[in-house]
Structures are given as structure tokens and as C-alpha cells.
Amino acid sequence: MQSSLYVSLSAQVAMEKRLNTIANNVANINTGGFRADEVKFEEILSLAAKESVSFASSGQNYVSRRTGPIVKTDNPLDVAIQGEAWFAFNGPGGPVYTRDGRFRMNENGDLLTLEGHPVLDAGGAPITLDPNAGAPTIGRDGTITQGANQVGSIGLFTLRADSKLARFGNSGVTSSIPGELVQDFNANGVQQGYSEGSNVNPVLEMTKMIAVQRNFESAATTIQESESTLMDAIRTLGPSS
Question: What positions does the domain Flagellar basal body rod protein N-terminal occupy (predicted)?
């Protein structure tokens, strides 16, 4: 059995997935609230040969939870999260969580994401403002006031470390475990007039891309050498004409 051939092939499959992930991250460097994809690889042990052989798995993607850079915008409907919490909005199958706090208000006063999804309050209900009452003031706890009236409260939710996150659109995620409402605003809160950018580190991603490309080429060379060795063996051991 040409173990090196199959090991190198499994490595190429894994590196192709890694390269696609890096390319997607680089493409979203300027996407507000975007969370980078990372890939976790596992060793697969084969006992088919006389000696055990280790293969690389194809890899499993997961969403990075690193915080992105905070940028001042002075837009009253922009809010950035301080801490590890998430905003929530209505998705087709339930709540979707995001760190992108660039919100807008339509003519009816509905508070929406840039894509038009209703932003949810602490009770999981859509938020409606008064479109004629001027710019809102948003407190650290998400409370929204217009003039002297409290008109709503932006919900903040934490996602458990063991919850599995699946990507929704550019900057949203769905969670296998529902988010837990933030009630202590010492560690988590919002800051009005700011927005959070992508957590992709462009220099790191480009460095990873170069390393993966070189490793891919190295694996391709190993495959070619294994095929050449196999063909030489066939010619040497095969029946002579």
C-alpha cells in the first residue's frame, strides 16, 4: 500500500478546505460584525496496513468569537457591543445573533438591521420607535429613549461556549442553544455612535494563505514522487516481454 500517496492526498483535501476558508475571510475584511471562520482538523488513524497510518481529516469549520475593532461613526442608530454579548434579530427559523449593530429605522419606526430584519428587544419582540420624535438615545443597557419617553430596549444575549454556531448571511449566526439574556451590564453593554468591524486579521490571513499554498505544493510533489516510485516498481517487477 502506498501510504504516503493517500496521506498526501488527505492533506491536500484538508488544505483545500483551509484555503477556501481563508479566501472567504479575506473577502469579508470590510464586512461589519463579520466573524471569521476557523477550521479544526482531527487525526484519523488507519489500521488497515501492518503499521498504523495517520491521515488528516477534511476539517470542521467553526465561527471565531474574537472581538472586532470598534469604530466611531456618530450615527445615533449605530451601537457597538462592549463585552462578549450579541444582538438578536428575527430570522426565518427563529432568532439570529449578530455583532453588527448598524441599525436603521423605516418609515413606520421599526428598528431593523441593514438587511431589513427586525431587531429584537430583551423579551424577543421587535422594536418600534417613534419616527417623528427625533434621534433616539441608547444607554449602556440597551434602553432606548426619545425625548423623555422610554420607547424600547435592545436585547443583549450571551451564547454558551458549548453552543454550535452556524453562519447566517454575512454577519449573523444561529445557535444550537438559545442565547441567554444579559442582565448584568458591568461586563456587557452597548455604546451608541460606534460600530464593530470584522474580526478578520488581514495580515494573519495572508500569512496563512501563503503557508497553505506552499504546503499544498509540497503535498503535490510527494504525490508525484509516490506515483513515480510505484511506476518504477511496476516496470521493474512486471513480466519482461
Answer: 5-35
Threshold 0.70, pTM exceeds? yes
Nearby residues of 228 by Cβ (< 8 Å), 6 or more positions away: none
All residues at 6 or more sequence positions from 210 whose CB lies less than 8 Å from its CB, including other chains: none
DSSP lists the bridge partners of residue 168 as 172
15 vs 127: CA distance, rounded Å = 44
Residue bearing cell 454550535 = 164
24: Cα separation from own chain's centroid: 10
Residue 6 to residue 198: CA distance in whole angstroms: 37
Q: For residue 120, which of 142, 147, 93 has the smallest C-alpha distance?
A: 142
Are 202 and 210 contacting, i.e. CB atoms less than 8 angstroms apart?
no
Question: Of how many residues is the chain composed?
Answer: 241
DSSP at 121: B
How far apart CA 2 and CA 4 sit, in angstroms, is 6
pLDDT by position in tens, the chain (length 241): 455 556 555 666 777 788 888 999 999 999 999 999 988 755 444 444 455 555 555 567 889 999 999 999 999 999 999 999 999 999 998 999 999 999 999 999 999 999 999 999 999 999 999 999 989 999 999 999 998 899 999 999 999 999 999 999 989 999 999 999 999 999 999 999 999 999 999 999 988 888 877 777 776 666 666 666 666 566 666 665 5
Residues 22, 26, 31, CA angle at the centre, nearest 5°?
A: 130
Closest CA to 186 of 141, 138, 120: 141
Element (H, E) at 151: strand 149-153
